[in-house]
Design a protein that fits this description.
351 residues; alpha/beta; TIM Barrel; 2 domains; nine-stranded parallel β-sheet; 13 helices
């Protein structure tokens, strides 16, 4: 059981916010494949505040009945922009407001957002307090962090000031990525840092992040570090099976056989249909190419399938790829290596 405020989740493996990926279609697939909770891709506070009733952007605030519980992740520079945006996200139906103090993208840091706030505890804590003050009591407020800007003593002291002040301000949980901001996505995630953190705060809800490429990784982090749960990010791209597989392992059963080609096709086609609901067919095809590259990892002819997904520039080519490679049922394969892309930078139109 994973507790995030008043939310009781029956699986301690959840879908992370992932810029450029965890849109409504990805989150819907994750929920249907066993994720107990999902978080929308990060949104800039000013972008949320500027949203109007337009079809082109309506999917950013989309929360359907079957999506609950769902979280929204906010990022920004000025504490003044957060309260209105948080209220708007609650009104849209999101069940949790997650504040991003972890994004390491250069463009984000240059605008004093995301991971930059780990260098200024006073501003970070003001953001937390102002969001907590305006969000209804029953809506949990959570924070996403990295283990610091870098590995200096000063950075660790600022991390401690933010996390302790965050608990005092009423955050319900914190997700900590085991890399520093300066590491970005390079080098290993330091799981020992997470273990130490859990020992220091045994009664708090701490979720771990970093180097979780499979269900086995998720279970290993929980058992080795003592985190309350984990957030599947890059390892869940084209891998919505990570949640049901983790459940099997956590309940003492062996890792299931990989999904068959027919099972893969069913999920991929459903993902595509969800994308068509919120985008045009042309945009849905483009959006799904990056997912297709990862779905291909499960196919016995993965290299060829991946090449065709990459080349699929429209709906017709997408359907031809599905028909060519997923027509006959065959046994699937587990990916040989992560092969996980780095998340893209925050979209320009959110600035």
């Amino acid at each position: 059981m994973l507790l995030i405020g008043n939310l009781q989740l029956d699986l301690p493996v959840v879908q992370a916010a992932l810029s450029g990926y965890s849109d409504w279609p990805m989150r819907s697939i994750a929920r249907r494949m066993g994720a107990p909770y999902t978080v929308a891709e990060v949104m800039i506070d000013s972008f949320v505040n500027s949203l109007r009733e337009r079809k082109r952007t309506s999917h950013f605030l989309m929360v359907r009945e079957e999506d609950h519980p769902a979280g929204a992740q906010l990022m920004g520079a000025d504490p003044d922009g957060f309260p209105e945006a948080a209220q708007k996200l609650v009104s849209a139906g999101f069940d949790v407001i997650d504040i991003n103090f972890g994004c390491p993208v250069k463009k984000v840091l240059g605008r004093c957002r995301g991971g930059f706030h780990l260098s200024q505890p006073d501003v970070a804590l003001e953001i937390i307090r102002r969001v907590r003050d305006v969000v209804p009591d029953q809506i949990p407020v959570t924070v996403k962090m990295r283990r610091g800007i870098d590995d200096t003593d000063e950075s660790r002291e600022k991390f401690d000031e933010i996390i302790e002040g965050g608990w005092d301000a009423g955050i319900a949980a914190v997700t900590v990525h085991g890399r520093t901001v300066m590491q970005r996505y390079n080098g290993p995630s330091r799981w020992a840092f997470l273990k130490d953190l859990c020992q220091r705060y045994p009664d708090r809800t701490i979720l771990g992040s970093g180097d979780l490429y499979s269900a086995e990784d998720c279970v290993r982090m929980i058992r080795e570090t003592g985190v309350s749960g984990v957030t599947a990010a890059r390892g869940s791209i084209g891998n919505p099976w990570i949640f049901s597989q983790a459940r099997e392992l956590l309940e003492g059963r062996p890792l299931p056989e990989p999904p068959t080609v027919s099972e893969q096709r069913e999920v991929i086609e459903q993902h595509y249909q969800f994308a068509v609901e919120v985008y045009s067919e042309a945009r849905a095809s483009r959006q799904l190419r990056k997912f297709g590259m990862r779905y291909a990892d499960w196919h016995p002819d993965g290299d060829q399938v991946r090449a065709d997904f990459v080349a699929a520039k429209n709906a017709t080519m997408w359907q031809e790829t599905i028909k060519r490679w997923y027509h006959n049922d065959r046994s699937g394969v587990y990916p040989v290596s992560p092969g996980i892309p780095k998340p893209p930078a925050i979209r320009e139109y959110q600035h």
